[in-house]
Write a structure and sequence with these properties.
There is one protein chain. The protein is of the alpha/beta class. It has two domains: about 240 residues, Rossmann fold, CATH 3.40.50.2300; about 70 residues, Arc Repressor Mutant, subunit A (Orthogonal Bundle). It is about 40% helix and about 20% strand. It is built from 15 helices and 15 strands. The strands form three sheets. Strands 1-10-9-11-12-13-15 form a seven-stranded mixed β-sheet, with helices on both faces. Strands 5-4-6-7-8-14 form a six-stranded parallel β-sheet, with helices on one face. Strands 2-3 form a two-stranded antiparallel sheet. About 40% of the residues are buried.
Length: about 375
């Protein structure tokens, strides 16, 4: 009986700034302010699609709940809002009127709006969304969820998990309500999830389970086991002599292990051994590509590479080109997440079907059903694997 997995650790340190730069082909100083700002803009892009008056209203609500003003004090004037947010007076007036309608402030003609309640009236017209930094996945998912909830007159209020302190914005969510709280159960949430999961409105975990697994709430999950199986089956159909799984430094997470197990299952069916290359990425693009080249030279031509994410496939693709080899003739490539990078490279990839996941999430929110829904992924076959 053939062993189905051997694991090889390859490199060193990893930075998300480097990851974004690699995938987009930047030739830049990875520690530069420019690149950090680019990364932050990518993480926060979800909020930028909202009307200005809603963004202003949400920010003022946060400031109110965090104690910037005491009850009975005047908050920002229309002129100060215009200057602070760079918007017109009409937009500032609309934001303040919305705050008044929600029960936070009292509006008086010719005077500064006065804070009357830190909590306002509990509002079920929005859905809280707690996300990490995977904007290439969460941006389309949240847009799809927003479309699904539009007819119910609900909007999304997004929070970045990486910027959350021990208490904020958990207490804010508990006090303000909302119809539901959609959560990406990233490790960054830590113990806060247990402290607040039974107090936030209708918790709904999307994409993967909390690693603890015992948090109350609904689930809409992607089937990573099936995704890994589809990756490997597609690559094996290309007639390659060997199959490897190329992953990055977080090996051991449930989603990664499920993908690898699925790929192993497909390899077992063809009596093949799956090698897992656990890559603790290098400090520069050149070093990462050199590491990938060394790996490929050791393996030889006629190798299929399954990548945990599309941006990892970008690295392999560049390494193959630098060696004078070809995709798919010498090396087959299959990515995951079906991001715009995969389309640009004509890369076969596995899509988590975010539209279907958003539809299921919206159904559970509107029907108030605590269910566990598994959404099967879909292979998007392109020309990076031999046919």
């Amino acid at each position: 009986m053939h062993p189905t997995r051997t694991t090889v650790s390859l490199a060193h340190d990893f930075s998300p700034y480097v990851a974004v730069s690699f995938a987009l082909g930047h030739k830049a100083d990875y520690s530069s302010t420019h690149l950090r700002d680019y990364w932050r803009r990518g993480r926060n892009i979800l909020r930028m699609g909202q009307p200005a008056y809603i963004r202003i209203q949400d920010q003022l609500k946060r400031d109110i709940r965090r104690g910037r003003w005491k009850e009975g004090e005047g908050i920002l004037s229309e002129t100060e809002i215009c200057r602070s947010f760079g918007v017109s007076r009409i937009t500032a007036i609309r934001a303040l009127n919305e705050l008044s309608s929600a029960g936070f402030v009292r509006r008086e003609k010719g005077k500064r709006s006065v804070l009357v309640s830190r909590g306002g009236r509990r509002d079920a017209s929005f859905v809280n969304v707690l996300i990490a930094n995977e904007s290439h996945v969460w941006q389309p998912l949240c847009r799809a969820l927003g479309r699904c909830l539009h007819d119910a007159n609900m909007r999304l209020l997004n929070y970045n998990i990486e910027h959350m302190s021990e208490e904020s914005p958990w207490e804010e969510i508990v006090s303000s309500g909302g119809a539901a709280t959609v959560i990406e159960p990233a490790r960054a949430l830590g113990p806060q999830l247990h402290r607040f999961a039974d107090r936030i409105p209708f918790p709904l975990y999307v994409m993967w389970d909390p690693e603890t697994g015992d948090c109350p709430g609904a689930r809409v999950l992607s089937d990573f086991l099936a995704g890994g199986y589809e990756q490997a089956r597609h690559a094996i159909a290309g007639g390659y002599a060997r199959c490897i799984f190329y992953t990055h430094a977080r090996l051991g997470s449930p989603s990664q292990e499920a993908m690898i197990s699925g790929a192993e299952k497909a390899c077992r069916e063809k009596r093949m051994t799956l090698k897992v290359f656990d890559v603790y990425a290098a400090e520069s693009e050149e070093r990462e590509i050199a590491t990938a080249q060394a790996m490929l030279k050791d393996l030889g031509r006629n190798t299929a590479v399954l990548c945990e994410a599309d941006w990892k496939a970008v690295i392999i693709h560049r390494a193959v080109q630098a060696m004078g080899w070809h995709v798919p003739g010498d090396v087959g490539l299959v990515g995951y997440w079906d991001t715009p990078w995969s389309e640009a490279l004509s890369l076969s990839s596995v899509s988590p079907r975010v539209d279907a996941m958003a539809g299921e999430a919206a159904r559970l929110i509107l029907d108030r059903k605590v269910e566990r829904v598994i959404v099967p992924p879909m292979l998007v076959a392109r020309s990076s694997v031999r046919r």
